[in-house]
Amino acid sequence: MIVGPRDESDRFTYWPVRIDRGGEVLAPGKPQDSVQYIDGRDLAEWTIRMAENGETGIYNATGPATPIGIGEMLDGIKTALKSNAKFTWADEKFLTNQKVQAWSEMPVWAGAEDGVTRTNISRALSKGLTFRSLDETARDTLAWFKSRPQDRQAHMKAGITPEREAEVLAAWKKQA
Known about the structure:
By secondary structure, the chain is mainly α.
């Protein structure tokens, strides 16, 4: 997933926006469920370097360099934004039963068994693919989103709505 400022899809953007709002946050699956993403600025810089160096070929260019789980990503965003968010982890089976969609309503997360978040990037790393910090990507993405017009901010294109999140959290607590 290509993320960062100017990503109009809101797939990653949902998380900094939601975590910045604080309070109880519905978190998908297990904290160790794998995620992969790359800041579009890092991808662009690497692509330009590759072209300037006359490099060609097929590469999987995502990140980060060291695999992480969604829990580490969400905690990193929370730390970067100095948020008071508290994550409530709901397992994949429960989310499926509640008809909460991985990827669209729970962006970046593809579920525990989805291979798309375990792509081997070693070839791109060997050609100099580098990554800025999650802190920087999260802060810059949130700042960019907050610079958008109010009507755009009010209508995110990805992520679960606040009302639906509250319903799902209430259902989770009821069955626990």
